[in-house]
């Protein structure tokens, strides 16, 4: 995934939140699309909300931003929205 080192939570199992499930329906993308976006992500940065990250990705020819929040207590990466 490029030259930049990904944080340890990048390899954690994902947990889809209710909010992202709603966005999937609203924005016409599937869980498979989301997993593909994460698998082929090009970068990440801190979000404005503490503890969250913005993952830069693509779906088809469109640029997407996926908001994630690592949960150290469950060891899962919560997908907040895309």
Describe the structure in your own words.
- The chain is an alpha+beta fold and 82 residues long.
- The chain is built from two helices and five strands; from the N terminus they run E-H-H-E-E-E-E.
- It has helices at 18-27, 31-39, and strands at 13-16, 43-46, 53-59, 62-71, 76-81.
- Strands 1-5-4-3-2 form a five-stranded mixed beta sheet.
The number of helices is: 2
Counting helices, strands and paired strands, the structural category is alpha+beta
Count of DSSP E strands? 5
Dominant shape = globular
- If strands are numbered along the chain, what order do they take across the biggest sheet? 1-5-4-3-2
- Give the rounded overall mean pLDDT: 91
- Our count of domains comes out at 1
Span from first to last CA?
Answer: 19 Å
Radius of gyration, whole Å = 12 Å
Q: Approximately how much beta-strand content do the residues carry?
A: 35-45%
- In N-to-C order, the SSE pattern is EHHEEEE
Main β-sheet: number of strands, strand sense, barrel status?
A: 5 strands, mixed
Kindly state the percentage of residues in helix: 10-25%
């Amino acid at each position: 995934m490029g030259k930049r080192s990904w944080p340890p939570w990048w390899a954690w199992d994902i947990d889809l939140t209710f909010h992202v499930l709603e966005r999937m329906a609203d924005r016409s993308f599937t869980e498979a699309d989301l997993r593909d976006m994460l698998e082929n992500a090009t970068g990440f940065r801190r979000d404005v909300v503490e503890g969250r990250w913005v993952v830069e990705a693509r779906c088809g020819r469109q640029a997407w931003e996926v908001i994630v929040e690592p949960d150290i207590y469950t060891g899962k990466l919560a997908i907040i929205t895309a």
